[in-house]
Design a protein that fits this description.
Helix content is about 45%, strand content about 15%. The relative contact order is 0.11. With about 550 residues, it is of the alpha/beta class. The strands form two sheets. It has a nine-stranded mixed β-sheet with strand order 3-4-5-2-1-6-7-8-9, sandwiched between helices. A seven-stranded mixed β-sheet has the order 12-13-11-10-14-15-16, with helices on both faces. It is built from 20 helices and 16 strands.
Length: about 550
């Protein structure tokens, strides 16, 4: 019989803390989780005070009896994550664990073989947070236990099915803590990208051509990733269920972590983030007006309303995210437009058949870059209108508090020519907002789109073949796709936008959440088997 949790404890460094794509994964999945488990879902994240309050609303009445008790041990705040579904969020600090760091690392080594001796950088802060999250989970678990001793029932009979789910190595210690202190809880660990795979790619080593020759432990030594790799690997081995987000990364897990995943849990999207009907038309017009006004102020030039707007967005990982391809492709695009007599001799022109491009990435050196005959305007990626970092950017000030999604809806085309991309949330977000996108087949999303039968931008997604040695080919293909897209009549562009939206519907959480149900079932059955075995051993000993 299928087992499903009564309570779900999920933790990530990005709960109420937007620093990467995992924030989008969790914040959009929350609505589906709340529908199936209303207020039985608890997200645990780091408490960064005013920064966290951009996404979090404290509610001192919520779980107040438990909060009063746990605050004597660890400082926590309870409230709501301000995303669709508004799930319960518990933010915590691990400051008081620093004095115990050596003992905690000794415990992790003795119990699970985690090699924390080579720790540096953000390892300490992350692992102590994970350990603290495990402690808070343990406390909440005992608080939520049903009353025992009635009608001859034992605690084992009445213990609810509880899932503890950790995302990425930063919270892996929570899984190890729960496994050691609360063995009845089912544990689930998801790696959204293996640390070693990302590091191999980021260090310029050929990830794909020599993939079968890489050994995770050996590469961890070479790349100075010993501790982070170790905690990720041990969490994968000790969790009741181990998952990742794509078949591409599942291959990495088996090769680099020596642990095949139990199930692939692809990333979906929540349509509540996308405006509908007339609201969509209004949002798109508002976005384009804001982008045009910003560009005009920066360039001191009057722009045509129907100029082609395209963008790249994401973390500033120059090679992994394909930002290097983007800038090379902009230069190549300018050459193609010039030779095809589609552009004038000016630095930038702005008819429908011409380009003005946007790079929505964390800060580059200049707000405006001229790449050949294409002008690129750099916008801080995680705009929210409240972040102090936004105020440092003249571009952000011109945009009057608009968020990333507020601007994405106004784009005509997006580019994500990634080299290393376990899933690829940005292209999925793009098509969800009816914007056709260009990606690669080494991105999990790109591989998934190919499986759905997409053959090009007319289907909403163009997927370019990418290897370790075809950089110039990828650059040229990106430029060619843009030129062909610009040459399409309006009715074809409309059809491409509709195809993008239709493909996005296949990736909504209503279709993808079933993979998590299966993961919960795997974990809870394994935890139940462990509990039965422990009970049998206890009876034999007594």
């Amino acid at each position: 019989m299928n087992k499903q949790p009564e309570y779900i404890f999920e933790t990530s460094w990005e709960v109420c803390n937007r620093v990467g794509g995992i924030y989008a994964v969790l914040s959009t999945r929350a609505a589906s989780m709340q529908k199936e488990h209303p207020d039985k879902v608890f997200f645990f994240g780091p408490d960064f005070g005013a920064h966290s309050d951009l996404y979090f609303k404290e509610d001192k009445k919520l779980l107040h009896t438990w909060t009063d008790a746990i605050n004597k041990q660890l400082p926590v705040r309870v409230g709501r994550w301000m995303v669709p579904g508004e799930p319960i969020a518990i933010l915590l600090k691990a400051d008081n664990l620093w004095a115990q760091k050596d003992q905690i690392y000794a415990w992790a080594w003795e119990k699970f073989g985690v090699r924390s001796h080579a720790a540096y950088g953000d390892y300490d802060e992350s692992c102590l947070f994970g350990y603290a999250a495990g402690q808070v989970m343990e406390s909440l678990y005992h608080y939520l236990l049903k009353p025992t001793g009635k009608n001859g029932q034992t605690e084992d009979d009445l213990t609810p099915n509880v899932m503890a789910h950790a995302n990425e190595w930063q919270t892996a210690f929570s899984i190890l803590y729960v496994r050691d202190h609360c063995p009845r809880i089912g544990t689930l660990f998801t790696t959204h990208a293996t640390g070693i795979g990302r590091s191999i790619a980021g260090n310029g080593k050929p990830l794909y051509d020599y993939f079968e020759g890489y050994h995770g432990d050996q590469m961890a030594d070479e790349l100075n990733m010993v501790s982070k790799h170790s905690v990720e690997k041990m969490a994968a081995h000790w969790a009741d269920c181990f998952t990742t987000v794509s078949d591409i990364t599942a291959r990495e897990c088996a090769q680099l972590l020596d642990k095949p995943v139990d199930i692939v849990t692809p990333n979906g999207f929540e349509p509540d983030f996308v405006p509908r009907a007339k609201a969509f038309i209004t949002a798109r017009a508002s976005a384009r007006a804001a982008l045009l006004a910003t560009a005009e102020k920066l360039l001191d030039t009057r722009l045509e309303d129907n100029c082609l707007m395209l963008c790249i967005a994401g973390r500033l990982e120059w090679k992994n995210k394909g930002i290097d391809v983007f800038f090379q492709a902009m230069e190549r695009l300018g050459e193609k437009l010039y030779h095809a007599h589609m552009t004038s001799m000016q630095t930038a022109t702005y008819a429908r058949s011409n380009v003005l491009a946007f790079a929505m990435v964390p800060y580059l050196d200049k707000p405006v870059m001229r790449i050949g005959r294409v002008t690129v305007i750099c916008i801080p990626f995680y705009l929210n209108g409240k972040n102090n970092m936004d105020a440092q950017s003249p571009v952000a000030r011109y945009l009057n508090g608009k968020t990333y999604y507020d601007l994405l809806v106004g784009m005509d085309l997006t580019l994500f020519p990634s080299y290393y991309e376990p899933w690829g949330y940005t292209p999925l977000e793009s098509i969800a907002f009816h914007v056709p996108t260009i990606t690669t087949d080494v991105a999990g999303f790109g591989a998934w789109a190919l499986q759905q039968g997409t053959t090009g931008l007319k289907d909403g997604v163009a997927v370019i073949h990418r290897t370790d040695s075809n950089f110039d080919y990828v650059v040229d293909e990106v430029a060619q796709h843009i030129v062909r897209f610009m040459q399409q009549p309006d009715e074809n562009i409309v059809m491409a936008r509709k195809a993008a939206a239709a493909l996005a519907k296949k990736a909504e959480w209503t279709n993808f959440f079933k993979y998590y149900r299966k993961a919960y079932d795997i974990a809870l059955k394994k935890a139940a088997g462990r509990t039965e075995k422990n009970n049998a051993l206890s009876q034999q000993e007594s």
